[in-house]
Amino acid sequence: MQHRIIVLGAGYTGATAAGRLAKRLHRDDVTITLVNAEPDFVERVRMHQVAVGQDLKPRPYREMFAGTGVELKEALVTSIDVDRHTVSVTEVNGSGVPETGTEELEYDTLIYALGSAWNSQGVPGTEEHAHQIASRPGALRLRSRLARLSAGDSVVVVGGGLTGIESATEIAEARPDLDVALASRGELGDWLSEKGRRHLRKVFDRLGITAHEHTSVAEVAADHVTAADGTSIPAAVTLWTTGFAVHPIAAASGLEVTDTGQIVVDEAMRSVSHPDVYAIGDAALAMGAGGKPLRMSCASGVPTSWQAADTVAARLTGGKLPDAPLRYFNQCISLGRKEGLIQYVTADDRAVRAALTGRMAALYKELVCKGAAWGVANPTFGMPVRRRRATVAGARDQAPASTSA
Questions:
Q1: Start and end of every FAD/NAD(P)-binding domain (predicted)?
Q2: What is the mean pLDDT of residues 200-206?
Q3: Which of 152, 236, 348, 354 could be disulfide-bonded to 290 (CB atoms 3.0-4.6 Å)?
Q4: Average pLDDT, stretch 134-144?
């Protein structure tokens, strides 16, 4: 009996895990099903580019996984039953719209990679009036709205993290006729090195972006946002980028999750409550260097997909379990198409003095983005492809997780 592996979600982490497993395991011994609601890979780290009208290269999954043995199922995940080892899905049409009827898929090993969506933080008016770019549909809606703005109209980006900074600079560069502002709870770029903060302010000044620092937005209206101190900031368009929220399916399934809904995993990305379930990317609470939780990002997600895929392959084949540490090297920030900022960091993601800025940083970030997308289709580049025979076959591996051989 073949061991049934189901991967939920085909973003950076899920697609990478599925491809890596396909190159590690023999096709006669396993089936690998990749469930995703969209037919094409979405470069989520480029959604701010899509929002200003830039078109990205199409990357159909059926082409990416042709000949690999990975079965792509275009469907929306509706629920998970961890006791019965089943996933309920609703198939979607070519436009991503759910069809009628639900299908149940059985698994022996489940890899949960459903990622995250935007987080309104429960702020009044956000759901009704703010835009988001945590998804391609959201980026396209913002694109349409920005295209209808006239010279002098105001755009407020709420959130001073990486997504907010990249969005504000991208919009200001693409539409210099707009009045672009960013509202940040803290100081602009306060986590960066002195060199990084200095360069960020220089770019904001050059692009004419107004930084509302130490400003929490308490309400969003159709034409303005209101700060916690009562200040009103004009906003023909509000873009909300204050973090991400994970899908509620995990919490509803019975898996052990955190207060934020992230699945609690061990160092092998294995659920601490259900050993036949692995969680990767934004959906998992994984620990990195120094015992600090990994932040939601592509930089965190891809290494967790390697860890999970290699652990699954090792357990099925009797191979050596992975023990590579999860750590950071830098934060790559695009500041429009002509400027960038590469902030070098410690293993646990704290900024050091060194930073790369300017045009070279922009090229660096572009290479990182291209490399991440290419890596989805080539998950074992630079490594020998060895499809090993499984020794566990259809049985579920219930042994305690470990990262020692």
A1: 4-309
A2: 98
A3: 348
A4: 96
200: helix, coil or strand? helix
Task: At 389, list the tokens.
Answer: 């025979």
Instruction: Show the domains of the chain with their CATH numbers.
Output: 3-117+244-326 (3.50.50.60), 122-240 (3.50.50.60)
Please say if the pLDDT value at position 155 is more than 60: yes
Q: Compute CA distances 339 → 2, 17, 48, 173, 193, whole Å.
A: 50, 32, 15, 10, 17
| Beta strands 210-212; 217-220: pairing state | unpaired
Asked if residues 255 and 240 have their Cβ atoms less than 8 Å apart, the reply is no
| Residue 88, token pair as written in the block | 């309920």
pLDDT exceeds 90 at position 67: no
